[in-house]
Amino acid sequence: MAAGGSRGDPLAVEPLPEPQPEVSPAEGHWGDQEQMAEIQFKILRGHSDTVSSCHFCCEDSKILSCSYDRTVKLWDVAKGFPVQIFEEHTAPVSECNLSPDDRRVVTSSYDNTVKTWDMETGKVLWTIEHEGIVTSCNISHDGKYVVFASDKGNAISVFDAVSATEVACVQGHHRSTITRCCFDPDNQRVTSVSYDKTIKLWDMVARSTSITIKEGHSNAISDCCFTSDGRYLCTASWDKSLKIWDVKTGEFRSRGPVTLNQGHEGSVSSCCFSQDASLVVSGGYDNAVTIWETYAGYKKLSLKGHWDWVTDVAISENKKWILSASKDSTLRLWNIERMDHIPSVIESRKEKGSKIAQCEECERPFLSLQHGGFEVISKCVFCRLSSPARNILPLPPSIPPDL
Asked: Which of 36, 46, 156, 370 has the highest Cβ tally under 10 A?
């Protein structure tokens, strides 16, 4: 069904909890693909152009978003409208992020600047000007540093988050535009991905690139995210796939990643782990949001309703809500509490002969897929990544760490 079709949302029921006056009559009714679906949604309207980035904050009671309309907005989840608007950028805002204490907001923009804002007052604390457009920004998990990527020289720069003084600048870090940069949870490394299909980890202590994965995907890499313990990195790509890499031990060199595919019909734009890493959420240029069962490497459910590309996704700490941002100028909140009771999820498990199994190594429960009555996988994704005996995936070329 084409985006913007008369049927509205295939997996949606009545919006939560207050219908938006702008919602068309078709939206909020049962779709023809999932007559028994119980995924509720809420549409947040307030931006006038592509929403480029989104996050839950303040214990999931607020949402932060930014847009090509040059604004950053803080939304009240219960009320469904902005309670704070940050306006000083003069061009599209490419990304927004929050400090760990939710007191500061960091933004990057095509106006060649990075800004830090006071969350409560909405005032700019400092501005860094760069020679090129700034495509991505992130603040370290201890709140001490800010990293951003510039299109000028395909560089990453690290600054002190309080004084705005430069700590490091790495020119020519990639061969093409950097699409995403972020700190690992230990604040030791900066990961970046690029149109050049390369994944890089830059060491904050050694001040050098510690890991380079060339041809990490067969097309541009659009996003990356870490598990909360920092061991695993997920990358999303225009090749329609996601990959999970064990980057803490470096064992990916000999054992490769786990690939998640057949979840999107087009390029994958974004990815996000749940706090406990049991779920991966991805957004795509097919206008869909996909939920993956991480331990089994299994597509669980697709959420359809956006009328244009999904540009970013987030998941609440309690795993009850998924947030998606889109080129259609809206954000959507999806309630996934009853996801396991949806007929399509139940039927898909039956068709694939799946069952809840216990990983033979870590003993965590995971969804084990079966075929022909025989169990295919006896270990969860993370243990398969760490297993010396795993030979089910092609091995990437060994890359010297100093490249």
From this structure: 156
* Half-sphere CA count of 46, side-chain side, radius 13 A: 23
Q: Which residues of 114-149 are buried (b: 16+ CB within 10 A; e: fewer)?
A: bbbbebeeeebebebebeebbbbbbbbbebebbbbb
CB 10 within 8 A of CB 33: yes
Cβ proximity of 79 and 98 under 8 Å: no
Average pLDDT value for residue range 11-19: 36
Question: Quick check: 53 and 94 in contact, CB under 8 A?
Answer: yes
321 burial (CB, 10 Å; 0-12 / 13-18 / 19+) is buried
Q: What is the pTM of this model?
A: 0.81
Token pair listed for 273: 């782990």
The pLDDT tens digits for 333-378 are: 999 999 988 888 887 777 666 555 667 777 665 555 443 333 455 6
Which residues have a Cβ under 8 Å from the Cβ of 354 and sit 6 or more positions away?
Answer: 296, 298, 348, 367, 368, 369, 370
Residue among 310, 240, 312, 321 nearest 275 (CA): 321
> What is the CA 28 to chain-centroid distance, rounded?
26
